[in-house]
Protein backbone atom coordinates (compact mmCIF):
# COMPACT_ATOMS: atom_id res chain seq x y z
CA UNK A 1 0.00 0.00 0.00
CA UNK A 2 3.05 2.26 0.11
CA UNK A 3 3.37 5.10 -2.36
CA UNK A 4 6.13 7.61 -2.89
CA UNK A 5 9.12 7.85 -5.15
CA UNK A 6 9.96 5.05 -7.55
CA UNK A 7 12.36 3.69 -4.91
CA UNK A 8 9.44 3.32 -2.51
CA UNK A 9 6.80 2.05 -4.92
CA UNK A 10 8.92 -0.34 -6.98
CA UNK A 11 12.01 -1.24 -4.94
CA UNK A 12 10.01 -1.15 -1.70
CA UNK A 13 7.50 -3.60 -3.14
CA UNK A 14 10.35 -5.88 -4.23
CA UNK A 15 11.81 -5.78 -0.72
CA UNK A 16 8.48 -6.81 0.80
CA UNK A 17 7.95 -9.61 -1.72
CA UNK A 18 11.48 -10.94 -1.24
CA UNK A 19 11.02 -10.97 2.55
CA UNK A 20 7.64 -12.69 2.13
CA UNK A 21 9.09 -15.39 -0.13
CA UNK A 22 12.09 -15.96 2.13
CA UNK A 23 9.96 -16.29 5.26
CA UNK A 24 7.14 -18.41 3.87
CA UNK A 25 4.39 -15.80 3.99
CA UNK A 26 1.16 -17.38 2.77
CA UNK A 27 -0.36 -14.44 0.90
CA UNK A 28 0.57 -10.91 -0.20
CA UNK A 29 -1.97 -8.34 -1.39
CA UNK A 30 -0.53 -5.49 -3.45
CA UNK A 31 -2.56 -2.29 -3.84
CA UNK A 32 -2.09 -0.91 -7.31
CA UNK A 33 -4.21 1.75 -9.04
CA UNK A 34 -6.66 2.19 -11.92
CA UNK A 35 -4.07 4.60 -13.35
CA UNK A 36 -2.36 1.57 -14.87
CA UNK A 37 -5.14 1.30 -17.45
CA UNK A 38 -5.18 3.10 -20.76
CA UNK A 39 -7.01 6.43 -20.27
CA UNK A 40 -9.73 5.59 -22.79
CA UNK A 41 -13.47 6.08 -22.29
CA UNK A 42 -16.12 3.37 -21.90
CA UNK A 43 -16.15 0.32 -19.65
CA UNK A 44 -12.79 -1.06 -18.58
CA UNK A 45 -12.09 -4.53 -17.22
CA UNK A 46 -8.90 -6.23 -16.06
CA UNK A 47 -8.33 -7.44 -19.62
CA UNK A 48 -7.42 -3.89 -20.65
CA UNK A 49 -3.67 -3.46 -21.18
CA UNK A 50 -1.54 -1.55 -18.71
CA UNK A 51 -0.23 1.49 -20.53
CA UNK A 52 2.57 3.79 -19.38
CA UNK A 53 1.57 7.43 -19.86
CA UNK A 54 4.58 9.26 -18.44
CA UNK A 55 2.77 9.98 -15.17
CA UNK A 56 5.09 8.94 -12.36
CA UNK A 57 2.43 7.40 -10.09
CA UNK A 58 0.72 5.16 -12.63
CA UNK A 59 3.94 4.18 -14.37
CA UNK A 60 5.62 3.19 -11.09
CA UNK A 61 2.62 1.02 -10.20
CA UNK A 62 2.89 -0.73 -13.57
CA UNK A 63 6.52 -1.52 -12.78
CA UNK A 64 5.58 -2.71 -9.29
CA UNK A 65 2.90 -4.99 -10.76
CA UNK A 66 5.57 -6.49 -13.03
CA UNK A 67 7.67 -7.19 -9.93
CA UNK A 68 4.65 -8.91 -8.36
CA UNK A 69 4.36 -11.18 -11.37
CA UNK A 70 8.04 -12.07 -11.14
CA UNK A 71 7.45 -13.29 -7.60
CA UNK A 72 4.26 -15.09 -8.60
CA UNK A 73 6.41 -17.04 -11.06
CA UNK A 74 8.74 -17.92 -8.18
CA UNK A 75 5.85 -19.42 -6.21
CA UNK A 76 4.70 -16.53 -3.99
CA UNK A 77 0.93 -16.17 -3.64
CA UNK A 78 0.26 -12.55 -4.65
CA UNK A 79 -2.99 -10.76 -5.43
CA UNK A 80 -3.13 -7.35 -7.13
CA UNK A 81 -5.98 -4.97 -6.33
CA UNK A 82 -6.67 -1.84 -8.40
CA UNK A 83 -8.96 0.40 -6.36
CA UNK A 84 -10.90 3.22 -7.99
CA UNK A 85 -11.56 6.57 -6.22
CA UNK A 86 -11.16 5.64 -2.54
CA UNK A 87 -13.09 8.07 -0.34
CA UNK A 88 -14.06 8.19 3.33
CA UNK A 89 -12.05 8.66 6.55
CA UNK A 90 -8.42 9.68 5.98
CA UNK A 91 -8.93 10.18 2.22
CA UNK A 92 -6.90 13.33 1.65
CA UNK A 93 -7.53 13.71 -2.08
CA UNK A 94 -11.19 12.73 -2.43
CA UNK A 95 -12.74 13.65 0.94
CA UNK A 96 -10.69 16.14 2.95
CA UNK A 97 -9.61 18.28 -0.01
CA UNK A 98 -13.16 18.59 -1.37
CA UNK A 99 -14.51 19.35 2.10
CA UNK A 100 -12.00 22.19 2.36
CA UNK A 101 -12.86 23.55 -1.09
CA UNK A 102 -16.65 23.16 -1.13
CA UNK A 103 -17.43 26.27 0.97
CA UNK A 104 -16.02 28.39 -1.88
CA UNK A 105 -18.67 30.38 -3.72
CA UNK A 106 -19.02 30.53 -6.60
CA UNK A 107 -18.03 26.88 -6.86
CA UNK A 108 -15.42 26.71 -9.65
CA UNK A 109 -16.53 23.33 -11.03
CA UNK A 110 -19.64 23.91 -13.19
CA UNK A 111 -21.92 20.92 -13.57
CA UNK A 112 -21.54 20.81 -17.35
CA UNK A 113 -17.78 20.31 -16.96
CA UNK A 114 -18.17 17.57 -14.32
CA UNK A 115 -20.43 15.03 -16.02
CA UNK A 116 -17.72 12.37 -16.14
CA UNK A 117 -18.07 9.15 -14.15
CA UNK A 118 -16.96 9.29 -10.52
CA UNK A 119 -15.97 5.70 -9.73
CA UNK A 120 -16.27 5.94 -5.96
CA UNK A 121 -15.42 3.11 -3.60
CA UNK A 122 -15.87 3.65 0.14
CA UNK A 123 -12.76 2.70 2.09
CA UNK A 124 -14.53 -0.07 4.07
CA UNK A 125 -15.49 -1.78 0.82
CA UNK A 126 -11.84 -1.75 -0.25
CA UNK A 127 -10.87 -3.27 3.11
CA UNK A 128 -13.42 -6.04 2.59
CA UNK A 129 -11.82 -6.79 -0.80
CA UNK A 130 -8.40 -6.98 0.84
CA UNK A 131 -9.66 -9.42 3.47
CA UNK A 132 -11.28 -11.61 0.81
CA UNK A 133 -8.03 -11.57 -1.17
CA UNK A 134 -6.14 -12.88 1.85
CA UNK A 135 -8.28 -16.01 2.17
CA UNK A 136 -9.92 -16.86 -1.14
CA UNK A 137 -7.84 -19.37 -3.17
CA UNK A 138 -9.27 -17.87 -6.37
CA UNK A 139 -7.42 -14.63 -5.60
CA UNK A 140 -3.93 -16.06 -6.07
CA UNK A 141 -2.12 -14.74 -9.11
CA UNK A 142 -4.99 -12.49 -10.17
CA UNK A 143 -5.57 -8.75 -10.56
CA UNK A 144 -8.92 -7.21 -9.60
CA UNK A 145 -10.50 -3.82 -10.08
CA UNK A 146 -12.30 -2.75 -6.90
CA UNK A 147 -15.15 -0.27 -7.39
CA UNK A 148 -18.24 0.77 -5.48
CA UNK A 149 -21.89 -0.11 -6.26
CA UNK A 150 -22.82 3.09 -8.13
CA UNK A 151 -21.51 5.23 -10.99
CA UNK A 152 -22.45 8.83 -10.13
CA UNK A 153 -21.11 11.82 -12.00
CA UNK A 154 -18.51 13.99 -10.32
CA UNK A 155 -21.11 16.76 -10.09
CA UNK A 156 -23.48 14.42 -8.26
CA UNK A 157 -20.72 13.58 -5.78
CA UNK A 158 -19.98 17.26 -5.17
CA UNK A 159 -23.68 18.01 -4.62
CA UNK A 160 -24.06 15.04 -2.25
CA UNK A 161 -21.02 15.99 -0.18
CA UNK A 162 -22.08 19.64 -0.13
CA UNK A 163 -25.55 18.72 1.19
CA UNK A 164 -24.16 16.36 3.84
CA UNK A 165 -21.92 19.19 5.06
CA UNK A 166 -25.04 21.39 5.43
CA UNK A 167 -23.61 24.02 3.12
CA UNK A 168 -25.76 26.34 0.99
CA UNK A 169 -26.73 24.96 -2.43
CA UNK A 170 -23.88 24.97 -4.91
CA UNK A 171 -23.76 28.05 -7.12
CA UNK A 172 -21.21 27.69 -9.88
CA UNK A 173 -19.33 30.22 -11.93
CA UNK A 174 -19.47 30.24 -15.72
CA UNK A 175 -17.72 27.35 -17.44
CA UNK A 176 -15.61 29.72 -19.55
CA UNK A 177 -14.34 31.48 -16.44
CA UNK A 178 -13.46 28.18 -14.78
CA UNK A 179 -11.53 27.02 -17.83
CA UNK A 180 -9.70 30.36 -18.01
CA UNK A 181 -8.77 30.15 -14.30
CA UNK A 182 -7.40 26.65 -14.86
CA UNK A 183 -5.28 27.84 -17.79
CA UNK A 184 -3.74 30.80 -15.98
CA UNK A 185 -3.25 28.71 -12.86
CA UNK A 186 -0.99 26.24 -14.67
CA UNK A 187 2.04 28.57 -15.07
CA UNK A 188 1.44 30.03 -11.59
CA UNK A 189 1.65 26.57 -10.02
CA UNK A 190 4.73 25.68 -12.07
CA UNK A 191 6.48 28.91 -11.05
CA UNK A 192 5.66 28.38 -7.37
CA UNK A 193 6.91 24.78 -7.49
CA UNK A 194 10.18 25.81 -9.19
CA UNK A 195 10.73 28.64 -6.71
CA UNK A 196 10.27 26.30 -3.74
CA UNK A 197 12.58 23.72 -5.28
CA UNK A 198 15.51 26.11 -5.67
CA UNK A 199 14.86 28.83 -3.09
CA UNK A 200 12.90 27.19 -0.27
CA UNK A 201 15.23 28.36 2.58
CA UNK A 202 15.14 31.97 1.38
CA UNK A 203 11.37 31.92 0.80
CA UNK A 204 10.63 30.39 4.20
CA UNK A 205 12.99 32.86 5.86
CA UNK A 206 11.10 35.75 4.27
CA UNK A 207 7.82 34.12 5.31
CA UNK A 208 8.96 34.05 8.94
CA UNK A 209 10.37 37.60 8.98
CA UNK A 210 7.76 39.59 7.10
CA UNK A 211 4.06 39.84 7.96
CA UNK A 212 3.33 41.27 4.53
CA UNK A 213 5.17 38.41 2.80
CA UNK A 214 3.37 35.88 5.00
CA UNK A 215 -0.02 37.38 4.14
CA UNK A 216 0.78 37.43 0.41
CA UNK A 217 2.06 33.86 0.42
CA UNK A 218 -0.97 32.60 2.34
CA UNK A 219 -3.23 34.41 -0.10
CA UNK A 220 -1.44 32.86 -3.07
CA UNK A 221 -1.56 29.41 -1.47
CA UNK A 222 -5.30 29.81 -0.89
CA UNK A 223 -5.86 30.90 -4.48
CA UNK A 224 -3.89 27.95 -5.83
CA UNK A 225 -5.84 25.48 -3.68
CA UNK A 226 -9.21 26.89 -4.74
CA UNK A 227 -8.43 27.24 -8.44
CA UNK A 228 -9.20 24.20 -10.62
CA UNK A 229 -6.52 22.60 -12.75
CA UNK A 230 -6.73 21.50 -16.37
CA UNK A 231 -6.04 17.93 -15.21
CA UNK A 232 -9.05 18.07 -12.90
CA UNK A 233 -11.39 19.08 -15.70
CA UNK A 234 -9.99 16.26 -17.83
CA UNK A 235 -10.71 13.76 -15.03
CA UNK A 236 -14.14 15.14 -14.11
CA UNK A 237 -15.29 15.08 -17.72
CA UNK A 238 -14.19 11.54 -18.59
CA UNK A 239 -17.02 9.01 -18.98
CA UNK A 240 -15.42 5.76 -17.91
CA UNK A 241 -16.77 2.83 -15.90
CA UNK A 242 -14.45 0.40 -14.14
CA UNK A 243 -16.01 -3.00 -13.60
CA UNK A 244 -15.71 -5.03 -10.39
CA UNK A 245 -17.46 -8.02 -11.97
CA UNK A 246 -14.36 -10.22 -11.78
CA UNK A 247 -13.92 -9.52 -8.06
CA UNK A 248 -17.61 -10.20 -7.48
CA UNK A 249 -17.38 -13.48 -9.38
CA UNK A 250 -14.12 -14.89 -8.01
CA UNK A 251 -13.82 -13.27 -4.59
CA UNK A 252 -17.46 -12.90 -3.62
CA UNK A 253 -16.84 -9.16 -3.31
CA UNK A 254 -20.02 -7.14 -2.78
CA UNK A 255 -19.68 -3.38 -2.19
CA UNK A 256 -21.97 -2.50 0.70
CA UNK A 257 -21.78 1.30 0.88
CA UNK A 258 -23.89 3.48 -1.40
CA UNK A 259 -22.65 6.98 -2.16
CA UNK A 260 -25.25 8.41 0.23
CA UNK A 261 -24.11 6.17 3.08
CA UNK A 262 -20.42 6.70 2.35
CA UNK A 263 -20.76 10.47 2.15
CA UNK A 264 -22.71 10.61 5.43
CA UNK A 265 -20.04 8.54 7.19
CA UNK A 266 -17.30 10.68 5.63
CA UNK A 267 -18.86 13.87 6.98
CA UNK A 268 -19.29 12.28 10.43
CA UNK A 269 -15.57 11.54 10.40
CA UNK A 270 -14.72 15.06 9.22
CA UNK A 271 -16.69 16.53 12.14
CA UNK A 272 -15.07 14.10 14.58
CA UNK A 273 -11.62 14.99 13.23
CA UNK A 274 -12.14 18.72 13.75
CA UNK A 275 -12.49 19.90 10.18
CA UNK A 276 -14.62 22.85 11.16
CA UNK A 277 -17.97 23.64 12.70
CA UNK A 278 -20.45 23.37 9.87
CA UNK A 279 -17.56 23.59 7.39
CA UNK A 280 -18.03 27.33 7.00
CA UNK A 281 -14.43 28.28 7.76
CA UNK A 282 -12.11 25.37 7.13
What can you tell me about this protein's structure?
The protein has 282 residues and is mostly helical. It has helices at residues 6-22, 56-73, 92-101, 123-135, 154-164, 175-209, 211-226, 230-236, 245-250, 259-272, and strands spanning 28-31, 42-44, 78-83, 85-87, 120-122, 143-146, 240-242. It has ten helices and seven strands. β4 (85-87), α3 and β5 (120-122) form a beta-alpha-beta unit. α1 packs parallel to α2 (56-73) and α6 (175-209) runs antiparallel to α7. It is globular, with a radius of gyration of 21 Å. The mean pLDDT is 94.
Strand content: 5-15%
Global shape: globular
Number of strands: 7
Low-confidence stretches: none
Summarize this, please?
With 282 residues, this protein is mostly helical.
